[in-house]
Specification:
Radius of gyration: 31 Å
Distance between the termini: 55 Å
Helix content: 55-70%
Mean pLDDT: 82
Structural class: mainly alpha
Order of helices and strands: HHHHHH
Length: about 140
């Protein structure tokens, strides 16, 4: 696999300008060896830690002493989380309902209009469904 990647990049040199080949293209050469040596990427992925570092950096209010701000804000956050989780009659600010409200699933978004079909329209609708349904085709022959 590693040799094929190198050969593919050499073939790319015919078609792409030299400005295309930056460090990110060069890193493709090393992906095969890294996968062989380190195993699957999920065991060495840093994304969750980077996300949490973003949260901790958000706690900093005084850049002269960031560690004090982080410790103080983290403690305040833990206290609020404890109180909102375990003390009754409080609003849990960490529980998000989300964008998709499950209570409206299967219901129309807007108010529906009640339509009464007369007998002729009902028969026509029934025939349309029967004649255009693929499940009924074997019985029509």
């Amino acid at each position: 696999m590693e040799n094929q990647i190198v050969e593919t990049l050499c073939a790319f040199e015919r078609w792409f300008p030299p400005s295309f080949f930056d460090i990110m293209i060069h890193l493709v050469v090393h992906i095969g060896r890294e996968a062989r040596l380190c195993g699957p990427v999920q065991f060495r992925w840093m994304y969750p830690f980077e996300r949490y570092m973003m949260v901790l950096k958000g706690y900093v209010r005084n850049r002269a002493r960031p560690e004090g701000c982080i410790a103080e804000s983290y403690l305040a956050d833990e206290c609020v989380r404890f109180c909102s989780t375990f003390i009754k009659d409080t609003i849990n600010i960490y529980h998000n309902e989300g964008r998709n409200d499950c209570s409206t699933w299967g219901r129309p978004i807007s108010a529906g209009k009640l339509v009464q079909l007369n007998d002729e329209d009902l028969v026509n609708a029934h025939r349309y469904v029967l004649f255009n349904s693929p499940l009924v085709e074997p019985y029509l022959k």
